[in-house]
Amino acid sequence: MGLVNRDLVLRRRMVEEQIRRRGIHDERLLSVMEEIPRHLFIPEEHHHDAYADAPVPIGEGQTISQPYIVAEMTKALRLSGTEKALEIGTGSGYQTAILARLCREVVTVERLPSLLDGARRLLEELLIDNVIYVAGDGSLGSPEHAPFDRILSAAASPRIPTPWLSQLEEGGILVLPVGTRSEQELTRVTKKEGKPFTDFLGGCRFVPLLGEHGFRE
Question: Pick from 134, 131, 137, 156: which is nearest to 207 by CA?
Fold first, then answer.
């Protein structure tokens, strides 16, 4: 079996066994996760784990989340395709690529320049051109590009950062892990009349959000 066919088989198996069987049936999302070559977003020495049901290191002390968590967070955003989204924590760019395929526009913020540059190069190679890349403190959001219909954070915060809520459109949705450095609750926030209304989606564990409105380094 050729490498291209092998990777396609692994992606299809990942979607069927790790995502669809766990109750996620958003066909747009499943189709995109089946199309995007996840292994390209992972260092070569970890390619054998690219489609495993587990997070994988990507360098700089960061990880790419397990496929199911990526799907669960994306599903929680309730995307229709017209949204302008803010992503906190570009990482390898895998979640960015999924959001870009499902949204009108994505603004992604990453504090580590090496990760941001690598993600930009890869997404450009994949002809994904509806992404704006921002280097800096993700806890501040991106006020110059606000407001946003959706916000997704790939890093855990001790609380809902106030800049994110202020940059979220009325009726918009924010999905983030909230808790301590070692244990968090995946949280969906809906902005109604300027106030956050939350529901909880289950326990999780993410790298900490470092910055002015996150954890201190």
Answer: 156
Question: For tokens 């992503």, what's the residue?
Answer: 87
| Domains of the chain: residue spans and CATH | 53-204 (3.40.50.150)
Q: What is the pLDDT of residues 147-179, one digit of tens each?
A: 999 999 999 999 999 999 999 999 999 999 999
Could you count the other beta carbons within 10 Å of the beta carbon of residue 201? 15
Would you name the residues annotated as active-site residues?
Answer: 65
**pTM > 0.90: yes or no:** yes
